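hey so u asked for the seq, here:
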Amino acid sequence: METLYTATIHGFSQSNGGLANGISTGIASSFDQDGVLSLIVVLGGSLSLVALVFAFITY
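ran it, structure tokens below
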């Protein structure tokens, strides 16, 4: 039951790699176009916030 559940969730066959392959496949499939775009937006926002604080401190 657990292997069937894991294979269904991560979309890979249990026989060719086990849990680590399932984790990496799940991570890779979660980084689709929207995931990468939102990651860039979040990182850019936090980066600009850090730059703003740094400019305010050093002014």
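Residues 10 and 42 are 25 Å apart (CA to CA). The helical segments are 2-10, 18-30, 33-58.
lmk if thats what u needed
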